[in-house]
Amino acid sequence: MFESLSDRLSGVFDKLRGRGALSEDDVRGAMREVRVALLEADVALPVARDFVDQVTERAVGAEVIRSVTPGQMVVKIVNDALVEMLGAETAELHLDVNPPAVIMMVGLQGSGKTTTTAKLAKRLSERERKKVLMASLDVARPAAQEQLAVLGRQTNVDTLPIVPGQTPVQIAQRALQSAKLQAYDILLLDTAGRLHVDDQLMAEMKAVAAASNPVETLLVVDSLTGQDAVNVAKGFAGEVDLSGVILTRMDGDARGGAALSMRAVTGKPIKFAGTGEAIDALEAFHPSRVAGRILGMGDVVSLVERAAETVKIEDAEKLARKMEKGKFDLDDLRLQISQMQRMGGLGALANMLPGMKGMKGAANVDEKALTRLEAMMSSMTAKERQRPDIINAKRKIRIAKGSGTTVQEVNKLLKMHLEMSNAMKRLKKLGGFGKLASMFN
Ligand code: GDP
Predict the structure, then answer these.
(1) Is 3.40.50.300 the CATH number for 101-288?
(2) Whose CA is nearest to atom 9 of ligand 1?
(3) Complex ipTM above 0.90?
(4) Domain boundaries, the chain
(5) 40 alpha carbon to ligand 1 midpoint, in Å?
(6) What is the pTM of this model?
(7) Is residue 113 part of an annotated ligand binding site?
(8) Which residues hold GTP (predicted)?
(9) Which residue, 248, 240, 291, 293, is CA-closest to 271?
(10) Does the first or last residue of the chain, that is N or C, have fewer Cβ atoms within 10 Å of its Cβ?
């Protein structure tokens, strides 16, 4: 999987990693090579361009964490951008409805749809202990229904008995009826394929969807077809309400263009990957693991993650030590704010701290507000930050002027600091420093 893309990228990063320092030109040069590698992997042009722009911006502006090299840092940034490009989170099936949960499988002929239907049925019945029924709605291809029946016997999954002469909608209705009567948890509908996306096919998909009300509509596409796979997905997504994509033949895909572009171009998550002809060769699609396979630099990525973790722990410990002495000044607040920005904003932190839940002012502060807080604290003297109690009316006016804010805002900041330091004193009484430090990590 992804061998050729992997090789290209590791060539680029080997050059970077050896260096002690990286200039902006080095980064830009490397990113040009990354762009070529992505295009050769058949990644859609706008996706490759966005990716490279994003990584360049982050890499050029990045603060290099102590104890890692700039090259290692770039690898980590590329890794994170790849994970995002692949969809960030693992996309799960949503089957929590009144049974039977209907999964409609759609796709072109030869994409691997019938095989994948059986693979998924097997997975759900074996791993998740669901009672699964499969039905083939493919009346166009003579042996299609029989093919699914054979796969059903192989996998020990029930298939709907074949009744010749029924339309796809009639079969769907009969399948739904049987699934309800016999208390199946899941009904998998294998719809007919075509050679191309055409109106007749789409009309059939819509009619079947209307008759069976699927919770998941999964498009099966062949990853070996690269950009065509993405275009097919775009075509289907415009017509039926796709909930996800299954990419087949990932085992033979050295380039990876379909996997990399799918999410960005169609907005649809890849939920599973077919990785072989064997009936259990179906894997959940985990963006972070796939990115790891593409880059093949898991060691570097975890090294940078560990280093970042250490820095955060050191900061948190420093803070905890100060608080242990009953001190929490505005310099500490400033440090906190930069940590909060990393952690998802002040609101997130406020909700984690006991005594601060629902605290007005803190919970609603957005990113821009954090920047204003920063500005106010920068306009204070070191002494003011260490001893906020000396900030009188005159000083407040000066600070507000210096930071382009208002006295009210300065008051709000001081109030927030006071409430935080009180909350921390309360926490100290509870002996919760260890807990607090772990929350900051
Ligand atoms: P359909 O026309 O879309 O229903 O396609 P089929 O399910 O009949 O599959 C066509 C061929 O692709 C079969 O020989 C499958 O074994 C093969 N196939 C399906 N998925 C995969 C996969 O993930 N990897 C590999 N190597 N072969 C696959």
Answers:
(1) yes
(2) 112
(3) yes
(4) 3-85, 101-288, 325-440
(5) 25
(6) 0.72
(7) yes
(8) 107-114, 190-194, 248-251
(9) 248
(10) C
